[in-house]
Amino acid sequence: MKKHTSIILAVTACVLVFTMLCLSGCNQHPQDEYAPYEVFENKELGCIELHYDDIIYRPYGGFYNNDFRGQQIGIREGDPESKICEVKGYDSKEWITEYLDVFMGGGDMLYKAVGLTDIPEELQQFKNYDY
Q: What is the DSSP letter of 90?
């Protein structure tokens, strides 16, 4: 009987430790590991800009093809639903994409760094804005 009680106590202790570890992870904010991109309204141009690491990004166009979306690198400052990602095959100092991680999201917005003039042919199809 003592042996069964010891086994039950050991299993219970393991379950409690596992549960505590899982619950402590719930308090973590995974978005904190991503860089916050500052948001500015450019009233002169009538657009929203994203600023990060001395780079200003302006909207270039929208797309629904997730094949272009790369790894997440940031969030829109103050909006953990916003996912800022690399554009596959392109330097994130020139091109980024943003989407909202919500049900029935509206696709991705492609952003181009200000001053970039060499537009890859593959991305020209998404152009909707002249900023």
A: S
Let me know how long the chain is.
131
Q: Number of helices (H) and strands (E), helices first, in the chain?
A: 2, 7
How many whole angstroms separate alpha carbon 49 and alpha carbon 66?
A: 22
Domain count, the chain: 1
User: Which 3 state secondary structure label does DSSP give 52?
Assistant: strand
pLDDT at 96 over 50: yes
Query: How do residues 52-91 score in pLDDT, each as one tens digit?
Result: 999 999 999 998 877 889 999 999 998 988 999 999 999 9
Domain limits for position 74: 30-124
